[in-house]
Amino acid sequence: MISSWLKNMFLGAISVQISGKLLSTLLNQLNRAGISLWNVTKTSEESITFTMSIKDFKEFTNLVKKTGCKFTIKRKYGLPFLNWRLQKRYMFLAGFLFFLLFIWTMSQFIWDIEITGHDGKYLAYEHERTIRSELQELGIKEGSWKRKMPEKDIIQNQLREQLQNDYIWIGMEIKGTQLLIIAVPLTKPKEDEEILIESDLVATKRAIIHRILAYDGIAYVKEGQRVEPGQILISGFFSKEKKIPAKGVVEGIVWYTVEVELPLERTVETYTGEAINKYNFVLRDWSLPLYLPNRLQELENHDKRTSIKKLSWRSLSFPVELHVDTYYETKTETIFLNEDAAKDQAVEMAFDKISKQVDFIEVVSQTIMHYNIDDGKIEVKLLAEVIEDITMRKLIDEKDYIDDEDNDE
After folding, report:
1. Entry's Pfam families (predicted)?
2. Is the pLDDT of residue 59 over 60?
3. Most CB atoms within 10 A, among 86, 137, 305, 386?
């Protein structure tokens, strides 16, 4: 049974539907002619379907004509028909085979080297640069043929030996076309922080104390108290024999005033909605443009944005990229701000100006002290109250405390 099926698949077979009034006569003639039929099924009173070998097809057609029946080929089986289809689609087959060969060839190279720390954390740039340099010494870089690379154990041992003073452990793994290096840097003991000498914490600017916490030392001010620049906030002086570096947190409310000007009429660039795409097929340092060079002439002004799509398949990544440059057409428009919008933008500009100058903790309030619209522009004067750290360290000067004692007397 199986050998018969294989024979028919090798020689070719067809599924045929026959209709006519002399079906029984035709079947008898086919039987006498030695034509084998299988899968015979009666579909109606004057119609049957069956499968036959393609080698008997010519004699079959002659007998059908003699009986006046009609037939339709429903399906074709076997290698002869497959070969015929492939001959019609040889370009597709050649392209498919070339694609498979291309994928296989590209998969034999390393196209991406990723260096990470423990648990996938990124390494500092200097660590990554050091490891890449060592890999290049071993002849390993993007584009290296995997068959020419040293064994995994050799690479790991070489890296560990060369970098043993900087790393606790270095491992590697090859995933498709990616070489993954996992390195755990040696955590060196941090150098001692700045050695604090006997000192006070004093105010850097005029402020009202918002919060004070004295960790080491004596608090000389309290919340709500106004202080001047240089005034002692937390003292490290207990006596002539006992002096320590004062430690603590002192936050103060500080005032800043800033003035800004903003024109009511502004020129801005806006998008028209028109866009043109330029495609570039990039293979490492080689680029193939896939666009007409003169298309950009259709856009007078434009803004360019680029997206990159990499060719990858499962765990395989290849040095083939599609660069899509999108050019958005722009036009220049003049806009006019009304009073409320201009006022809001001016206040925002003023506060941004303060933010660039001061590293504050919290904003207490913003007050517009003055604003005026004149000669096509708005002028705003803003007062901002913010909370910030107002401390700085100052060496203990015993004279400060002698003067205080004299004043107390």
Report:
1. YqfD
2. yes
3. 386
